[in-house]
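User: Fold this; tokens only.

Assistant: Input:
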Amino acid sequence: MVLIDENDKPILDNITNSAVALEMREGLKNLYSVLKGADEHLKFVFLTGVSKFSKVSLFSGLNNLTDITLEAKYSALCG
């Protein structure tokens, strides 16, 4: 099991410095690629964040993602 809280924080902390923000994004993409490579050993991976970064291919290294953001039964799970 892997829990990554505030997965977008490194990017958001550097949002006014686009070069650093891009570097953070690439680092996170590399991390998620490692998780994908360990897929057979992982039962559950849970990512939280405040921004929707799916449009910037941050998670292109992962597959089988389920976005539960707007599902009522999970609304109180993470605040």
